[in-house]
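Ligand: adenosine-5'-triphosphate. Inputs:
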Amino acid sequence: MIQIDHLSKKYLWSRWALDDVSLTLREGMVGLLGPNGAGKSTLMRILAALTAPTSGKATVFGIPLTRAEEIRRMIGYLPQQFQAYPGLTGTEYLDYVGALKGIKDKKRRNAEIDVLLEQVNLQDQAGKRVRTYSGGMKRRLGIAQALLGSPRVLIVDEPTAGLDPEERVRFRNLLTRFSLGRIVLLSTHIVADIERNCRQIAVLNQGKVCLSGVLDDLQECGRGKVWEARLSEREFARLDPLSVVSTRPAAGGLLCRIIGEAPPAAADVSPVQPSLEDGYLALLRTGLPEGAAGR
Ligand SMILES: Nc1ncnc2c1ncn2[C@@H]1O[C@H](COP(=O)(O)OP(=O)(O)OP(=O)(O)O)[C@@H](O)[C@H]1O
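Predicted complex:
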């Protein structure tokens, strides 16, 4: 379990990147959602013992962040801007990381690297230098280095950025398998990345936790706030653009999915079931529904 108590972080010349964050993260996949600048990467770097908080504390399986070496040995981390040495081959790079992670036995290291290369679908490129890899291939190498050594906690910062749809699905399945009996903390601003496979989610906005719970809690945030309206171009022009989730052409104008506390002013409007993404957008735009506390 990861226990986070009143963590705050302020960078020099910046507003609070994290503002009194308290969360309990349990075994399984945990999705950390939030818009750009919400504080996701900052929270992850703090939990990986790479940045110190300004105030507050956290423990990872009972070990406080102040025991940084122990924390780092327990955690696999894929940063948002992952870089590997360009002159090494994929295998050489993983071998180097494996040695750093304390896998001393060369045979064991090689065996683990072979399995990982296959899991991230890099086995055919493993002998080539990293400088020749595409962005998606580098990302997959980053995922492999984070999984190396089977850490008890895996922290992956926007891991699917730059992956094609097929690799995205492969990666999601890999993480789900890996999360059995471990904590996998995955940050994203793409709701589809956390659909189905996350047991727990937390939503950050402007450094604060605005929801901690399960996927249904997020979907509930959209209840009574999602509308489908057939609009003329003139009606559409009067809408707040931020309230429109999607539009498609329809007879006599546009069919729009709209988020708002009240239905849009239009003749042809009906309420619709919120999707998970609607719930997320409604939460960011209109806040928690009345009486909701998350868990
Ligand atoms: N090294 C830094 N120095 C100063 N300010 C920083 C630094 N790193 C992050 N910030 C600021 O802290 C806030 C949170 O940034 P952070 O990168 O943690 O957000 P994020 O949710 O990961 O965003 P994104 O989804 O865009 O990656 C932002 O306002 C950002 O500008």
